[in-house]
Write a structure and sequence with these properties.
This protein is mainly beta. The chain has no helices and 14 strands.
Amino acid sequence: MAVLGGRRPNPAVLTYLSEGSEIEGNLKTSGSARIDGRVKGSVIVEGDLEIGSNAQIEGEQVRAQNIIVHGQVNAQITASGKLHMTKTARVEGDIRAMSLDVEAGAVFVGRSQTGELRALPQGTKPGS
């Protein structure tokens, strides 16, 4: 289990941003999260993250343990576990994950690096 900032994620805590909701600024949560709305900023989740089919995230980074993307993300994505992009996903930005699963129909524009996260270069930005 990954520990961010020395704290363990609380699996009992779920942060939910409903469809039609918008956040301008960074979103951080100690548990898991599901986003069906729009976030203009970074999303940092200590647990798992699911991005709904109508969701839009535009920011510097999206980070969580395991990530499922159904919607649109324009950011650097880091998953300490698995990143799964469904057929409705559109991701623009670089990806770092232990494992990557991309369904037929998903759109991905960027670079991907998979495997041991300690072996991956740090601090790369999308498009650089």
